[in-house]
Amino acid sequence: MKDQLIIFDTTLRDGEQSPGASMTQEEKLRIARQLERMRVDVIEAGFPAASNGDFESVRAIAETIKESTVCALARANENDIRRSGEAIRPAARGRIHTFIATSPIHMEKKLRMTPDQVVEQAVKAIGWAKEYTDDIEFSAEDAGRSEIDFLVRIFTAVIEAGAKTINVPDTVGYNVPTQYANTLRTLIERVPNSDKVIWSVHCHNDLGLAVANSLAAVLAGARQVECTINGLGERAGNAALEEIVMAVRTRQDVFPCDTLIDTTQIVPASKLVSGVTGFPVQPNKAIVGANAFSHESGIHQDGVLKHRETYEIMRAEDVGWGANKLVLGKHSGRNAFRSRLQEIGIVVASEDQLNHAFARFKELADKKHEIFDEDLNALMSDEGVTPEHEHFRLLASRFHSETGETPQAELTIAVGGKETRTSAQGSGPVDAAFKAIEAVAKSGTELLLYSVNAITTGTDAQGEVTVRLSQDGKIVNGQGADTDIIVASAKAYLNALNKLHGKLEKLNPQL
Ligand SMILES: [Zn+2]
């Protein structure tokens, strides 16, 4: 019997800290349900001390998720830990994950604490957490640049105090595989009772080594990997869940452990996270990229046709490709619509919302004959913005673009419920639409990114537009989907403005 490798997903916490990747509570719940369906062991749902919104999201996930452990992150102080404890209270299985910095540079410059004070604070933190749960994880922030003797000391103390999982994060993505594996091996050898806890790794991808470092640590004895869907995360991101899981599954001859993940849920999870955050997946991305299983080269194709294993080490269907079968069409009824939403994890709050969503589904089905799961996700993301957060809303549009003429956009927008007409010219119809919106909104934002992706295949596919805006250092992503990409662009711009309009300040822990 092989050891179990625990998969700890932090898409909703670390992943959400990518600039512009913030998600609504409804979006987080949808992702959490997909993670549960994929049989992720631990879902890090958020950082409850960051804001009331974060607290409520973690609590809602704790109320909803039954199979996976729901984890809340807390700095090693009493307030953070009590907020986390309250947030996970409804969970079937709840974990508190507390952390403190242990590298000399962080202790001295950031915490302004002596090493003795840091150990004392960590032990106190475990004590507060124990009032809420026995499932306590401790992280030594910036462990990758900490002194090994100090790590041995603090880990010994927190295990003695009751921590059950010990995480050794490479917070700044500085480590390389053999050296990082050595760190893990040394800690496991030197820390007393190291066999009574689970050793965990959390690697950042600044040097492109997050997955390699995580896997090297697993070979050295780590039995939990912290990772995110599509490798989402701060800066260059985290270790990609899909790569960790498939490397371990495919190379069972090398790894002494395996995960419980249902790998056929990987591609649906990837598409969901990409759709919600507006971060497209590069085509050559391992496992979940559009080209990951396509064989363009004639020589390869011939080999694959003769015998699949000549060039394929995994099967596309094992990771969930091809599962997005035609689900609904123009003649699908309300019940079929509702039950498909349920199957992909979307819960409609009320009959009113269902009726409204169904009407929009019918409109879409008139323009596009085949409706896939990705279309439903995009449709419901648009629905997800609650009316109180929808300060700007597109009511009607008209675009003009002709050879030799200046492109023109005329829009009717509801601003705080008041109908407003606006128009502008631009270098193209998208530029004209954005200028027309700005003429009314006067947000003074800077456009950092604009991208269009086809949600599914075919020329009648919906275009999904992502717009990233920056205003006084705040960065948000807006999304919009429509079969007309100019309309999708206007929706995405307004969606981003709505997020800026209702946005609260929040705190991002570095871990
Ligand atoms: Zn991190």
Number of domains: 4
Percent helix among the residues? 25-40%
What value does the average pLDDT take?
A: 91
What is the rounded Rg?
24 Å
Number of helices: 16
Beta-strand percentage range:
15-25%
Number of strands: 18
- Uncertain segments: none
- Return the CATH architecture of the largest domain: Alpha-Beta Barrel
* CATH homology-level superfamily of the largest domain: Aldolase class I
- CATH class call of the largest domain: Alpha Beta
SS-derived structural category:
alpha/beta
Can you tell me the CATH topology of the largest domain?
TIM Barrel
Sheet with the most strands, sense and barrel status? 8 strands, parallel, barrel
Which molecules other than protein and nucleic acid are bound? zinc ion
- Provide the spatial order of strands within the biggest beta sheet: 2-3-4-5-6-7-8-9
EC number: 2.3.3.13
GO molecular function, one term: acetyl-CoA C-acetyltransferase activity
Keywords: Amino-acid biosynthesis, Branched-chain amino acid biosynthesis, Cytoplasm, Leucine biosynthesis, Manganese, Metal-binding, Transferase
Catalytic activity: 3-methyl-2-oxobutanoate + acetyl-CoA + H2O = (2S)-2-isopropylmalate + CoA + H(+)
Provide key terms for this protein:
cytoplasm; 4 domains; 3-stranded antiparallel sheet; EC 2.3.3.13; LeuA/HCS_post-cat; binds zinc ion; amino-acid biosynthesis; 511 residues; TIM Barrel
Explain what the structure shows.
It catalyses: 3-methyl-2-oxobutanoate + acetyl-CoA + H2O = (2S)-2-isopropylmalate + CoA + H(+). Its cofactor is Mn(2+). Belongs to the alpha-IPM synthase/homocitrate synthase family. LeuA type 1 subfamily. Its EC number is 2.3.3.13. It is built from 16 helices and 18 strands. The protein has helices at 25-37, 52-64, 78-87, 104-111, 115-130, 148-161, 177-190, 210-219, 241-250, 266-277, 298-306, 334-343, 351-367, 373-384, 429-441, 485-501; strands at 3-4, 6-9, 42-46, 69-75, 94-101, 136-141, 165-170, 198-203, 224-227, 257-258, 328-329, 370-371, 392-400, 408-415, 418-425, 446-454, 463-471, 474-482. It has an eight-stranded parallel barrel, surrounded by eight helices. It has a three-stranded antiparallel sheet with strand order 13-14-15. Helix 13 (351-367) packs across helix 14 (373-384). The two termini are 33 Å apart. Bound molecules: zinc ion (ZN). Residues 14, 202, 204, 233-234, 238, 511 line the site of zinc ion.
